[in-house]
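Question: Send over one sample?
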Amino acid sequence: MPKKLLSSRAVSIVAVLVCGLILLSCKEVGPEDTPTADPNPTPTGTPADIVFVVDESGTMIDVIDSLSGLAGALETALEDAEITETQYALIGFGGTSGNVNRTGGWVDADDLETAISALGAAGGDGTEDGYDAITYAFETLTFRDEAPHAIILITDEDRDIVDSTVSLSSVKLLFDEAFSFHAIVNVSYSSAGTDTIFGADYDYTAFLSDNAGGYTAQVGSFSIIENATNVRSDYITNFAWDSDIGGTAWDITLLDEEATADTFGEVFSGVLVPYFQ
């Protein structure tokens, strides 16, 4: 027996029910449902806070000329290691302006380069107090809790006292386990070998170029030649190489010389990257 066809009235009722179900399942989207950007997005890279503390006295002119290349090499090495949330600050001292925050706060690599280009070896009164400048950096900058921090001191002189209330002990108290200290100062290294030693760390490991854009570490005997009186005790053995600080000390004359400045940047940057990992 053939099936009965639905009446036109029944078809109309079914159509209304279907349309009603469709309308119920489609919610109107209002302003409250529109996705909004997070005003404080979580950084996707690894962070690092790096402060350059640079002597601006008259004898530093060639070193300052090489500083942009050094900072650029460090930024490239950090990015290659996926440390991409780096912020920098530049503190000048020892020049005619005394202690001054040349970046005004934290900046990115491009703005750091701009600040470096404005540095001038403008003489001063011959009083270069690295301890006072480091203290000034801590007073004018706020470091991120989630980031490793590094203070990089660059000077060709020992410590001259500007503020007698600032001492090595008071400066070291500013450093917690998140900080490392790296001194590019007026010393040289010598060993039985013929390869140039660019720097060394608190474990008495020397750092040399691998002649391929990186570095090699050499554990063994070497001696330090002090080119400025007291610089070794002021910034190296009692500070950078203090086991509670853990850092490195470097030969500033190799940054000063055009022939070795680029290699210095490669070795220095390669050594520093693990401090942020």
